[in-house]
Amino acid sequence: MKQINIYLLFVLIAFSFSVELLSSDTTIIYTAPAEEILYEGYTVRINGQEAPVYRARVSAYPLNQRWPGHQRPKYQTEFAGFCSWDMNGPVTIEVIPHHAETIDQVVVRPQSNGIVPKIKKGTIIFSMKEPSQITVEVNGMHHALHLFGNPMEEPQPHPDDPNVLYFGPGVYDIGKVDLTANQTVYIAGGAVVYGAFEARDAPNLTIRGRGILDGSRIERLDSMVSENSKVPFGTMALYGCHNARIEGITFRDANLYVLMPVACNDMSITNIKEIGMWRYNTDGIHLKNCQNMTIDQCFLRNFDDGLVVNAYQKHRGYDCGELPTRNITATRCVIWNDWNTAIRVGVVCYTPIIENIVFRDCDIIHASRIALNIENHGHAIIRNILFEDIRIEMDDGSSENQYQFRKNQEYSYSNKMYVPQLCFIDIKKSMYTLTEDYGQIKDVVFKDILVLGNRPPKSFFKGFDSEHMVENVFFENLRFGNKIVTDLESGQIEIGKFVKNVRVDP
Question: Within a 13 Å sphere around the CA of 505, how many CA atoms are in the beta-carbon half?
Answer without folding.
Answer: 8
